Amino acid sequence: MFRIENLTKSYRINNGRHYIFKDITVDFPENANIAILGPNGAGKSSLLRILGGIDYPDSGRVICDKTMSWPLGIAGGFIGHLTGRENCDLVCRIYGLNKVKIEDTLETIKELSGLGKYFEEPIGYYSTGMNGRLNFSLSMAFDFEYLLIDELTSVGDRHFREKARNTLDEKRSTCNVIMVSHSAAIVRDFCEHGILLKDGQMQVFDNLDDALKAYFPAADIPKTARLSSYGSDLDDVLKLPQELEGDSNQTLKRRLNLILKELHEQIDQSDRIEDEATVCHRLGVLFFQLGKWNDSLEFHQKAIYLDEQNLAFYPPYLNCLFQLGRLEDAIEVLERVLGWNPNHPILLSQKGTLMQRLGRNEEAVIALKSAVDLEPENPDRYFQLASLQHINAQFEDALSSALTAIKLNPNFSPCFELLSRILAEMNRWEESVEAKLKFGRLTSESKPSPRDWGKIYSDIISKVETEFRKVK
User: Fold this and answer.
1) Where are the chain's structural domains?
2) Which of 31, 189, 193, 324 is most buried, most CB within 10 Å of its CB?
């Protein structure tokens, strides 16, 4: 049997007590690999500490006849002035190992951690990475029936991460995993069941995908954490106008090709999910700027898959869907994400654009008015609303919205062109001409300079190299 009964956990705050969960009774799936999901502050780590016996509830109990590890990934627990060997020796004694077994276990820990001579140095001198490696290696040295893992996605360098993953895979043949993670990619690799903690409630799902969808509606985009292929040929991606196909530009393209391929390999081999997601997002933005929508979409999909809570990843992803004409896919994603956070002005603005393209203008106006209410100082929101009101022949409303946008940004040239058309529809011809002349003056003053393709691609290479260094 594995269950919690009438479990309550709270913390004292300035205005009284904050309850993480209260009088919760839940049966856990037995002999199963379980993901614990939920937003920050929901109590995931607190629950894991209670299951591992290093924290106690206010009331209630955990009923389980299996042995559990301490939570891997939670900092602390070691004694700073003792060496790595002495700390591990102490834990081995606490768990009742005999002298011969302790010696063998300590050598196993030393070898797996890769700490070498630093295993004999005080823990207080260890870096965060060294501390994490020792924590992981110590946990792997015991035959627990359940391994408790708290956001253990990046331990040590690439070589150690590969060794740690292999060790954990071997352990899973003789034990089960209870894992806290924000990454669908990680929990899908390890778990079949899910537990969702949210708003003080705890819900058990027999199917992990059901738990992920309940936790975050857009979690079912791809089913793999890897990109199987790079995508398109860089010579096609960075095709220059024929008159600019000089040797220097060809060199830039070849160099960028190598950097991107190397970066792509590094991303696929990395377990540092936060960095990987951010890099994929930024590369998606880069390809969008180059007009390569499919390549951009591929990177944005992976970024969302790896860090599905990050709402900043969704607007450019939706822009790719818009450009590719995948409007039904876009509306499905928008509805799901807005269901999770209905007050996101950029997403509401994008919903307005999408509804307009689908001819659902009333819904578009509602979405855009909501975006304006959330960002009343943003002229772009008023401009977008004025454009739609003009299309809907709501000329008085359109005039009001356009004038507000201009008030917020007096040099907003597209808004003067829109204002001219609105005034013409209202038969206010002289004012329409004045607005058109103003538009002409502003656009002539801000005439763009010729594009320096060499500089553009040099800047792109610089950006990609920056992202590459972040993944290493």
Assistant:
1) 2-215, 243-445
2) 193
Domains 2-215 and 243-445 share a fold: no
3-state SS of the chain?
CEEEEEEEEEEEECCEEEEEEEEEEEECCCCCCEEEECCCCCCHHHHHHHHHCCCCCCEEEEEECCCECCCECCCCCCCCCCEHHHHHHHHHHHCCCCHHHHHHHHHHHHHHHCCHHHHHCEHHHCCHHHHHHHHHHHHHCCCCCEEEEECCCCCCCHHHHHHHHHHHHHHCCCCEEEEECCCHHHHHHHCCEEEEEECCEEEEECCHHHHHHHHCCCCCCCCCCCCCCCCCCHHHHCCCCHHHCCHHHHHHHHHHHHHHHHHHHHHHHCCCHHHHHHHHHHHHHHHHHCCCHHHHHHHHHHHHHHCCCCHHHHHHHHHHHHHCCCHHHHHHHHHHHHHHCCCCHHHHHHHHHHHHHCCCHHHHHHHHHHHHHHCCCCHHHHHHHHHHHHHCCCHHHHHHHHHHHHHHCCCCHHHHHHHHHHHHHCCCHHHHHHHHHHHHHHHHHCCCCCCCHHHHHHHHHHHHHHHHHHHC
Residue 44, pLDDT score: 87
268-272 LR contacts (CB < 8 Å, sep 24+):
268/226, 268/227, 269/158, 270/158, 270/471, 271/153, 271/154, 271/161, 271/165, 272/153, 272/154, 272/471
Distance, in Å, from the CA atom of 337 to the CA atom of 218, rounded to the nearest integer, reads: 7
CATH topology of domain 2-215: Rossmann fold (3.40.50)
The pLDDT > 90 percentage for the chain reads 24
Mean pLDDT on 329-352: 88
Find all residues with CB under 8 Å of 241, minimum gap 6, and list them. Answer: 453
For residue 205, give both structure tokens: 């799902």
**pLDDT tier for residue 266 given thresholds of 50, 70 and 90:** low
Q: Round to whole Å and give the CA distance between 437 and 458.
A: 38
